[in-house]
């Protein structure tokens, strides 16, 4: 699956352009201001205007963005000492105001004397100890009979839950038992698109692996109306199905044991509603060119939703074959994983389409079917018919996808030395789709944005579409053919598909210049993995939220990064490739664990010095985080030391982790070519390498292909800075970007001062390449936004001046016409995005002119694709053009452009519009709900919107988790974008997340949010006083 990051191509600090587009009086968010100043615009419900963010009052009216005042702190520490819950008190007075009001606290808490404190503490300790003793003593202790001795040899009996019918449910675990294995499913589905319901029949043939009296499988929200069972040659008989809804399991219990080796068939008839969210068998609709609403139904099963469409053993290791039949109205068509075998008229006027039985065993999450009125274009690639489907009016946007998919299919067939095993491969653009795309075997589903490309689309838009196609096609091998056994190893699917996506594009479409994007996503993966709330690549997964949460940058981007590092480390060009071919062939049709991959790669090792891949890679997949390598040099002797790069590092979180690091380095003697690379394996805490005395500087981690950060020490950084100042081309652009990323990370860690960061950035007046430039702008923007949201106005102004001094001349040099080179487009959109967000007159004027031309041309003039975002964002800041843009948004058919318009609309600094757009995103009429995470993240970037958004999330939390599953990528995005710019104690103290309890407080993204706020606070505390001096 491609989770579709709302900020695709993370290398572009596009966020910057939504940021403080116009520096306005902070009163802009005070709705008490004359509302007549805001002209009306379409679809604005007057009821919705009466919304004021509780939180906005705090910062906007300057009631205090500082930490608790001293009295408050005193109260808290005293209260803690006395064992009184400070949280209760603070939440009590919180309820009468908004979450982080800086009102004067009640003065009821006077400070106790030291003696009182000691007496109180002693008293409390005694009382607490006695209470605990009494509590933990068994109830029988004080009875006459006393306690009976328990028989210690009796194993614990599992505690079985109650089924919905009140009987005991015979299974008490999250994972299914493995005594019964499904072999084949025969599915018949009769969807009714008028009433949004469906009726189904599932016939499952199973084999008994171990003697058992129960069959347990998954089912969610299905109303099972009849169940029959047949064991071996016995008669078919009716059986009762027990259901335990909290675990989405059903069971059939027998009085006699079924014996290993027997076969049995369970037939279940059921009815259900089509899902209104984005998973299971869900309904979707679109308006066609005649203005009619067309409905359709599609599926999204990964990770846990196949059970919402048919009862099944819904775990990836239960692979089986599927034979699927679906009925439809004659004017609709159906699609499924396999080609259609036949179509039969039914007595009720409907048609029933039957698909060939799958020729491969597959996991339930890969099953898919669609009922719609799409149109295809097709092409043969060796034995496979490749087709791209879309709604009829977008057929003209499908050519690029067909060509790209065909080329990539040919490439993968060759590369893996295993042909794609099915006779057809459909790529379908679905109007309502939450993820970026989903790799269902033979029927890959996409968002319209990630599949459809207009004839005039820019190379950057093509890059997005090509990389999503490349990712999903790679899954047809990694994931579909060979599947992880359980979700703990999701990275085997996603890390690989992500790596192959970049690798294949570089080979097949070098013009798309995908390298910069890959570098940028590796930087972001490092940033996330530096948090204590991160997790190991392979990590335990024991509940549905944890399954959802595996779809994160650790599984995807860190997974891809460590594969890249491994590929660079293995000797010879083809060892990596040979290893993965060996892995795919050995485990074809089966399920694997991480160790299986490392073993395959070790087996093909050809070098004299035996490369033990398992030994090296285990250190990267079994522990969270990554190493910081510190360089210290005395003459020719260079000592490298490793430690865990952990941003929240105190004694409690200190780890003694060691990594097996394939360190690469170059020196001023030879630094640009691949041949210059020297290697050093750092397995222990520290190691020493020798250099000629004459070497002036060395740069570790050539092109940032390794997953670690390097600290060069004061002298090492100074030498690199001097070298770059006299000639930027002494290092590759990837290496320059890597230095910039690393020094910002080290500043966040507290190892270098911000002065050193600025010192390195001095070389950038000569920088012209996209990667270092976008990385620097992105990093500076993070700080700029934090300062802005703390209303450090004078520092915001200085930061703005600093950015313009550094990059202004390059910003002015950018052109506004069509541009072919991808990297020039990336550079240009980053620079102009920043320039306009910083209110540069020239930029704003150019953008306004382009928008005007575009608006007046009636579709004949075009804004270059890479500049559309800048232009729409500038336009959205004016009352009049915001309305025009909203109208365009509602009429434009090309989805990529439409999304940029939406980001523009959401970047408005007008509070009424912010409220309107958030609500519209939740309603899903004018703005599709699938776009809500994008809307929220865009709104959060702006000064006017981020508190509105935070209130909106808190108030609508239950509706949000109804639309987007807990832990899902969408929820992760929402939490992250809403909280990543908080930096005060007040924000930490709110307690919203802890109040969620089972509705989300345990999510890793919540821990990540809290940790990030703490780190922001720490960085601000440390650097605010000195930023004044340095900027
Ligand atoms: Zn994927």
Automatic annotation (TrEMBL):
Q: Where is the ERAP1-like C-terminal domain?
A: 697-1014
Question: Per the UniProt record, which residue ranges are transmembrane?
Answer: 117-137
List UniProt keywords, sorted A-Z.
Aminopeptidase, Glycoprotein, Hydrolase, Membrane, Metal-binding, Metalloprotease, Protease, Signal-anchor, Transmembrane, Transmembrane helix, Zinc
Record site: Transition state stabilizer: 556
Q: Name one GO cellular component term.
A: plasma membrane
For this protein, the record's Pfam families field holds:
ERAP1_C, Peptidase_M1, Peptidase_M1_N
For the ligand (Zn(2+)), the binding residues are: 471, 475, 494
Q: Which GO terms describe its biological process?
A: peptide catabolic process; proteolysis; regulation of blood pressure
Cofactor(s) in the UniProt record: Zn(2+)
**Main localization of the protein described in the UniProt heading:** membrane
Q: Which residues form the Aminopeptidase N-like N-terminal domain?
A: 182-366
Q: Where is the active site?
A: 472 (proton acceptor)
Q: Describe its membrane topology.
A: Single-pass type II membrane protein
User: GO MF terms on file?
Assistant: metalloaminopeptidase activity; peptide binding; zinc ion binding
Q: Where does this one sit in the cell?
A: Endomembrane system
Residues covered by the Peptidase M1 membrane alanine aminopeptidase domain: 400-620
Q: State the free-text cofactor note.
A: Binds 1 zinc ion per subunit.
Q: Which family does it belong to?
A: Belongs to the peptidase M1 family.
Q: What is this protein called?
A: Aminopeptidase
Supply the source organism for this entry. Answer: Perca flavescens
